[in-house]
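Trying the structure run again after the queue cleared.
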Amino acid sequence: MTQQKAIDITGNNIANVNTPGYSRQRLNMEQATPVRVLNTTMSTGVVAQQKIQRFHDQFVQSQMNTENENLGRWEAQRTALEKIEVLFDEVSGYGLSTAMSGFWNSWQDLSNNPTGHVERNSVLSAGQYLTSTFNQLSKNIQNAQKDINTSINSVVTDINRMADQIAELNGKITKVEVTGHNANDYRDQRDLLVLELAKLIDIESFEDGDGNMTITVGNGKPLVERAFTWDLVTENIEGKQNVHWKDSSGNTLDITTHIQSGELKGWIEARDRVIEGYLGRLNVLAENMISEVNALHGSGYGIDDDVQRPFFVPESDGNALSIAINPEIVGNVNHIAAAGQAFTPGDNSNAIATAELQNALTMSENASTFGDFYAALVGDVGNDTRRAGLNFGHQTAMMKHLSNYREEVAGVSLDEEMVNLVQYQHAYNAAAKLITTTDELMQTLIGLVR
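Done. Tokens:
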């Protein structure tokens, strides 16, 4: 019976050789308790230990959880930034850099013929293309942030689902192990769930004396304790989905700033710090362009009246999403202020001054031009995306290394299992032969009595 049990466990190992998270098992045998018969000690064979050994390294498992937290963070951030990098594409020739160059060049052309209707229409068209490019880029960035909100909601749903499954496994493990047996299969399932959970959010976990695992998140808030769970929910705060922990009374506490790793951290960090920073810098660029161009245009004159007008609207608090051409100019290109003085048709001084804004140090505390400022922004987007990709690659390599190490400790080796199978088979056959021999001896003895 002992050898048969060992064969069963070996067969289970072989069957689960490709099962994710499975830890190989072994039946430990020991001598049965001897007995005294006629002043002689007699052995009573072999007995299998009630608890089946599970090959498991808790330290490696803990390391894998930690590294998976970092992997989830950089994977989410890389995904988010790759989408943003596409929005700042300047290779196709349709980006904001091209729109700005076209705008400045149109003013240069107007300075060569300040009364030309074609040139004035060109300024209007270039200005409209510039503002629409600003508008669309800003809108696309904000849409990317909304997409991240959707991802955060999805991750929170997955976290709650896994927490429920872990709590259910806690109950199953306790029910089995209270009888003195090992719930090895349930423990494997729970460890795999905890590893997947760690990829979503940074956790602290520990096991009590009854085999129940307690998991906390967000600066010590319980997520799983024995068979009980606490939900995470999302709440819209100024257009952003923040993560809240809900207590047993239904009250919620914002733990967004306490999330330090996992996919949630990657999404939140990308949305609130990295992408928000890009949007802020884009708005600064738009606001400075409004300010500088309007300052010149508002001091110049068109060719049909002496009214001074801004070129861009709104004149103050404008940003990349709202920047537009003054409707008065859209309705009449003669209002474009190419001249520095009223009713001076050949005057091109204001057009020249506006064209020269292209090379003026108007950004970064008078340290860079509009073009340099935007080029730095595009460069930072590329660098941040590359950095996220490199960190993701590093964490992937770390997880692969730890997974390989875990397999060395807990994984199933088919060669080893086949050797064990043959060994237990021979032992089983030998035990069967022993029973046959004993039976023959008993029959001989009975025959003598007869």
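The first strand starts at residue 25 and ends at 26. Worth checking whether this holds up in the mutant runs.
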